[in-house]
C-alpha cells in the first residue's frame, strides 16, 4: 500500500519536473552581491554593524600583521637585536622551544619525549577513523602506553632513567589530558548511570561524588590530591606527585562528564527503555546497546566542550609544582638574558593549545554528521 | 503464507489445558490512585482478546503488568506457568515469551531495521548472527517489507515502522503478543496495513491481547472482547454479543460514543 503511494508520488514528481519550465531564483538573491546584500546589508542596523566591524578590523589587523610578520625578528640572533625591533621576537622561540616543549627533561634525551609524542599523535589520528574501531585498537593503545612509558621513564634497554619530576611541557599536558578523558569518561558514564539507578545506595553515592567534586574548584581538588591523598594511604606507601595530580584531574573530569552524560540520558524517551525491556534485554545490555549509543551521540557537543575545557585546565598543575606546557613557557621567561618576551612565549603555546582544541572541535562536528546519517528524519 | 487455522471458541481451548495467562485479584496503585481493581482474567492458549474502554481506564496498565513493565502490588499473575514476582529471573523468562507492540512503535532509531530485529535474538536468545538474520528476513517478508532491511527506522513511514515493530517482537518467537493501541499513532491510510498483519498473525494461532478501538478488527478476529472502565473489567463477551447485546449501561454508553 505504502509502496503504491510512494510510487504515485514519484510519478507525480517526475511529471511536474518534466512539464513545468525550470524557474531560476531571482538574480538579486544569488552571486557575491546578492550574498553581501542578504547577509551584511539587509537592514540599516545590519549595515551599521557591518561598517563598525569593518572599521575595527581595519584598525587592528594591520598592527597585528605587522607585529607577527613584517617587523618580527625571524633570524636566530641575540636578544639585543630583538629588543631593538618593533615586532615579535621569534628568535626567542627559536632559542627556547625545546625548553617550552619538554620542560626540564634532560636536553640530550629529548628525542625520547619527541618520539613518544609523535607515536601518540599517529595512533590518535588513526583512532579518529571509525573503520579502525575494532578490538585491536584497544590493544594498540595498551602497547603504545607501555612504549611511551618506557621511553619517558627509561631505566631499561640502555635508556637512562628520567624521574617524573623532570617530565614537563607538551608530553605532560597530553598525558594529563589523555588519562583524564580515557579514565574520567568511563568513570563519568558509570556515575551518570549510578545517579539514575533504582538502587538508593548507588544513587546516593553517585550524587555525593558528583556534587562534592563539582562543588570545588580544580585547584582545590589538585591540592587535596597532592596534600591529602598521602594521609589516606598506609604508612610507607607514597605515590609520586605526578600520579597524585593525575588522579585529581581524573576525579574532576569524571564528575563533570557524568553530568554531561546524564543530560544525554535524560533525553532518551521512556519508550526506548520499555522496548528494550519488553524484548528481554538485561540492564547492562539495554544500557550498552540501546541507551548509551543514543545518549552519547546527542551529548557529543557538550562532551567535546567539556573535553576542551579539561584539556586547558590541566595547566593548573603548575600549582602542585609540575611544569606542563604553560609552566614550561613561564620557566622559559626566567632566563635573565631573554627576560620580557612573554608575548612570544604565550603566543607560541596558545597556538599549540589552539591546534589541539580546534582539531577536537572539528572532529566532533565530523563525528556528529557521520553518526547522524541514519537517524535524520 | 499464513496457515488459516480454524477459529475455535475459548471454551474449546479451556478443555485443552491450563490458561497461558492467569491474573487473579490483581490490584495496582499509582501513589494513591487505584488504577487496577481486582482484575481477574484467564487467557487460553491461542485466544485472541480485544480490550477496549475509555482513555485512562487502565487498559495499558493491565497489559503492561503481564510483561512486568508495570509492577502489580496485590494479586497473582501467572504467565505460561511462571509466576510474576519481583524475582528478576522470572521476569526475564516471561519477557522472552511475551512480545509487545507499542503505540509509538519504539524502534531503536540508531540501528537499522535488520539490527532492530536481530538484537534480542542474538543477545538474549544467543542465536548465531546468521541464523538471526535469516529469521529476521523471514518475518520482514511476513510483514511485507523485506526491501527495507538496511534502512533506519527514521526513513520509514509510520505503518512500516509499526510492522517492523511487530516483526521485531516475532523474531523472539513469543508465545503471547501484547498490542497497546498499535494503530492509534498512525495516519488513517496506514491503519489497514498494520491491521492486516495482525489478522494474519491471529489466523496462525498466536495468543493475542490487543488494546484497540478498531471495532472492525475486534468483530472479525477476537474470541472475546473486554470492556474496562475505572480500573475494572466491567463486561466481557464474544464479539457478536458484546456489540449486539451489551449488558451494562457503561458499555452501552461507551459503544454509542465510539460506533459512529
Ligand atoms: N506512571 C504513571 N504514574 C502515575 N499515573 C499513571 C502512570 N501511568 C498511568 N497512570 C494513570 O493511570 C490511569 C490509567 O492509565 P492507562 O493504563 O494508561 O489507561 P488507558 O491505557 O486505559 O488509557 C490514567 O489515569 C493514568 O493517568
Ligand atoms: Mg493506553
Topology:
The complex is a heterodimer of chains A (377) and B (260).
Chain A: H1 2-19, H2 31-39, H3 44-70, H4 79-84, H5 90-102, H6 111-127, H7 135-153, H8 169-195, H9 200-214, H10 218-232, H11 241-266, H12 270-278, H13 283-298, H14 300-313, E1 323-324, H15 325-332, H16 342-372
Chain B: H1 10-15, E1 21-30, E2 33-43, E3 48-52, H2 59-66, E4 74-79, E5 82-83, H3 88-97, E6 98-101, H4 113-123, H5 129-142, H6 158-170, E7 176-180, H7 188-203, E8 207-211, H8 215-221, E9 224-229, E10 232-237, H9 239-244, H10 249-258
Parallel strand pairs in B: 3-8, 3-9, 6-7, 7-8
Antiparallel strand pairs in B: 1-2, 1-4, 4-5, 9-10
Helix pairs in contact in B: 4-5, 4-6, 5-6, 6-7
Adenosine-5'-diphosphate is lined by residues 30, 35, 53, 55-61 of chain B.
| Gap between N and C termini of chain A | 21 Å
What is the number of strand segments of chain A?
1
Structural class of chain B: alpha/beta
**Which residues of chain A sit in consecutive blocks of at least 5 with pLDDT less than 50?**
1-18
Beta-strand level of the residues of chain B, as a percent range?
15-25%
Gyration radius of chain B (Cα, Å) is: 18 Å
The number of helices of chain B is 10
Major sheet attributes of chain B? 6 strands, mixed
Q: What coarse outline of chain B follows from CA principal-axis ratios?
A: globular
Derived from helix and strand composition plus strand pairing, the structural class of chain A reads mainly alpha
SSE arrangement of chain A, N to C: HHHHHHHHHHHHHHEHH
Annotation, overall tally of beta strands of chain B: 10
**What does the largest sheet of chain A look like?**
none
